[in-house]
Amino acid sequence: MKDFSDYIVYVDESGDHSLDTINKVYPIFVLTFCIFKKDVYSKSIVTKLKDFKFNHFGYDMVILHESEIRRDRGAFKNLNTKEKKESFLNELTQIIDDEDFTIVSTVIQKENLESKQNNPYDIAMQFCLEQTYKFLESKNQHEKLTHIVVEQRGKNEDFELKEAFNKICNNTNNYNVQMPFKIIMANKLTNSAGLQIADLVARPIGMSVLRPIQENKAFKIIKKKFCNIGLKIHP
Length: 235
Known about the structure:
By secondary structure, the protein is α/β, with parallel strands linked by helices. It has 7 helices and 6 strands. Helix content is about 45%, strand content about 20%. A 6-stranded mixed sheet has the order 5-4-1-2-3-6, sandwiched between helices. The chain is globular. The termini are far apart.
């Protein structure tokens, strides 16, 4: 059995990967990997997010969902004034800015794909896994077991995802190597700091591609965290 690496990866997405019906307003699919060093993650980001939740909600069970925050829904319905929303987002953005983690992401422009046989999720997954492997190689961690945490989506979808994941890791990649990654399927209600950070950064990355001239304060912070070839836009 391989030793565990010093890193853990949390994954989330923005948009959907279906090619049957393409949303004209958001015709992209974004897959984002957030790579954390475990000791930094457990001692810093987890504590900061808990404190942030205690300060704003009085308890720490709130799950930070970008879409619900943006729409002032659920636990975030009180963010219904410009001042409250800006204060909340500025504090949350500062936490992300202060934290030391690395981002790898793929944005699939679905309308530009040559064939509907090209699964956007598989394309994005391969790039993100390959770049994560190269990052770990630079840290001399590429021969150790690294866990990749992904949210559950449904029985059939999870099965297909695991199949694609394992196929890429087992030499079906551009480096022709066996990637020592293990996928962990997490329940959507799991209160994971890493999954929440991945959720928060995915859409701003997508918007930076979809509307590049639009003001995007979050992306100004996020883009500093990309690794060497950390953002791929395809095709």
